[in-house]
Amino acid sequence: MSTALFRNTDYVNNKMLLHIGSALFNGFSFWMIGDSVSSMQLRLFTIFNFIFVAPGVINQLQPLFIERRSIYEQREKKSKMYSWVAFVTALVVSEIPYLCICAVLYFVCWYYTVGFPNDSSKAGPTFLIMLLYEFVYTGIGQFVAAYAPNATFAALVNPLIIGTLVSFCGVLVPYAEIQAFWRYWIYWMNPFNYLMGGLLVFDVWDTPVNCKKHELAIFNTPNGTTCLNYLADYMATTGANMNLLNPDATEGCEVCEYKQGSDYLKTLNLKEYYYGWRDVGIIAIFACSSYALVYLLMKLRTKASKKAE
Question: Global pTM?
Answer without folding.
Answer: 0.88
